From TrEMBL:
SUPFAM superfamilies: Iron-dependent repressor protein, dimerization domain, Winged helix' DNA-binding domain
Keywords: DNA-binding, Transcription, Transcription regulation
MF (Gene Ontology): DNA binding; DNA-binding transcription factor activity; protein dimerization activity; transition metal ion binding
This protein's name: HTH dtxR-type domain-containing protein
Short name of one Pfam family: Fe_dep_repress
Coiled-coil boundaries: none
Family: Belongs to the DtxR/MntR family.
PANTHER family in UniProt: IRON (METAL) DEPENDENT REPRESSOR, DTXR FAMILY (PTHR33238), IRON-DEPENDENT TRANSCRIPTIONAL REGULATOR (PTHR33238:SF7)
HTH dtxR-type domain boundaries: 1-62
InterPro entries named among the record's database cross-references: DtxR_MntR_Metal-Reg, Fe_dep_repressor, Fe_dep_repressor_sf, HTH_DTXR, Iron_dep_repressor, WH-like_DNA-bd_sf, WH_DNA-bd_sf
């Protein structure tokens, strides 16, 4: 799975949570990419069965796409929280979480989460 694919799927999930519906222009604004670039990626994601696009051009995640998007979204939130807990400024924590969320192994992520959750929740 490429970082790009994960980023698109996570962005669709975030926009859906924020706005309720997702259109390609929303993704273009969210990611600061051109409409033609987004259109290419939408076709690719659809061909991989990660998204559906209805007759009104509303984009939704398939079960397969939602599984990946939810995993990346959880990683982002948890890593941001851990980074802030250890004293990283919020803007840096968020930016670093965006990078790390795509490369961290499931084992390392779970170990970090299990280690820091009790500490953060106790605070």
């Amino acid at each position: 799975m490429s970082e790009s694919t994960e980023m698109y799927l996570e962005s669709i999930l975030v926009i859906q949570k924020r706005k309720g519906v997702v259109r390609s222009i929303d993704i273009a604004h969210e990611l600061n990419f051109s409409k033609p670039t987004i259109s290419q990626q939408i076709k690719r994601l659809k061909s991989l069965d990660y998204i559906n696009v209805n007759e009104h051009n509303i984009i939704s995640l398939t079960d397969k796409g939602m599984e990946i998007a939810s995993m990346i979204y959880e990683r982002h939130n948890e890593l941001s929280r851990i980074f802030r807990y250890i004293g990283i400024p919020e803007d840096v924590a968020t930016e670093d979480a965006c990078r790390v969320e795509h490369y961290i192994s499931p084992e390392t992520f779970e170990a970090l989460k299990n280690y820091f959750d009790p500490l953060i929740n106790k605070k």
